Amino acid sequence: MPRVFSGIQPSGDLHIGNWLGAVRNWVTMQEQHECLFCIVDLHAITGGYDVASLRRRTLEMAAGLVAAGIDPERAVLFVQSHVPEHSELMWLLNSVTPVGDLERMTQYKDKSAKLESIPAGLLNYPVLMAADILLYRADLVPVGEDQLQHLELARGIARKWNAEFGGGTDLFPEPQGLLGAARRIIGLDGQAKMSKSLGNTIGLVESPEAIWEKLRPAVTDPARKTKRDPGTPEVCNLYALHRHFSPPATVAEVAENCRGARWGCLDCKRVLAERMAATLAPIRERAADLAAAPERLETILADGAATARRMAQETMREVRDRMGFLAPTGQPAARGATA
Ligand code: TYM
């Protein structure tokens, strides 16, 4: 059975971009694959963060994922910092990662351009991502489009490490990125990728009222100044969202009424708000139940970390051995100490 790994930062509530781009795919994949899903708190500290809220955000993300359908009976759900082997493998992978490759990463270029002093963690971020995936020797990595470049780098790191230390048998499979039906959800500003840091999101567990308050001012077809101007659905982000939340008949009705200038943008938004609230209602209910039983989440995360750690330790024994480290006294090396 192919093994699946993916991660998400604990940057507050899950939003519909995360859900449509990745998490919905995770929920489907857990039916037929061995899956590990990780809340990547170590990644969340690379660009300045709020210490006081990190614990709460980590638990909220776990609640959001379970509410969205991640089933701890089928998938391993855990917190990255609970498995210290992620940091260890990252350090070891640094030895086969060219700095030039890291400097070419688009996300690094975008984020570092805004900073006066660049933390080394921002540059090494994709090495930690590679470590996350390779630690479990995962085959498939379901993500949104923005992570594909990092995955390509992870493949290169796996290849280099295998060539240098594989000794004829590759330890790491080259992980394949897997895109879902929604590769890149645009935010409510109608321009940038939906992203918590840009404040252009709709949360997965927002109330119907909050969804409406956010959709009401959302940017639509900029050429449509008044209700009487015929619109072009294909250039409107709200129409794109309809395609994800409304049934085909409604999508067709929206397009027709927009083109024919029969509906104004607010009419279209009202229908979208209703469809979105209806689609997300079961997730919101499950999240409320989970919030009322925090000990259930703690158990899920503790069990997840224990399972992940067993797998991680197995890989690390092999990695340390192949890289020539002396095993501590009393502990056998993975394949019996090599000469
Ligand atoms: P993160 O936390 O930014 O996002 C989690 C997942 O959601 C996807 N996503 C989107 N997809 C479509 N449209 C959007 N607007 C949108 N916003 C987010 C992301 O592509 C991602 O799949 N570095 C990663 C986390 C990570 C990881 C890993 C992923 C750490 N280690 C190992 C895979 C494998 C990140 O910051 O994702």
Overview of the structural elements:
With 339 residues, the protein is mainly alpha-helical. Helix content is 51%, strand content 7%. The strands form two sheets. Strands 1-2-3 form a three-stranded parallel β-sheet. Helix 8 (208-215) runs antiparallel to helix 11. The longest helix has 29 residues, at 294-322. The two termini are 34 Å apart. The relative contact order is 0.14. It binds tryptophanyl-5'AMP (TYM). Tryptophanyl-5'AMP binds next to strand 1, helix 1 and helix 6.
Rg estimate, integer Å: 22 Å
Shape: elongated
Provide the succession of SSEs: EHEHEHHHHEHEHHHHH
Strand order of the largest sheet: 1-2-3
- Compute the average pLDDT: 95
Largest sheet: 3 strands, parallel
What is the strand content?
Answer: 5-15%
Q: Give the beta-strand count.
A: 5
Are there runs of 5+ residues with pLDDT below 50, and where?
A: none
Which class do the helix and strand fractions yield? mainly alpha
The distinct ligands, each listed once, are: tryptophanyl-5'AMP
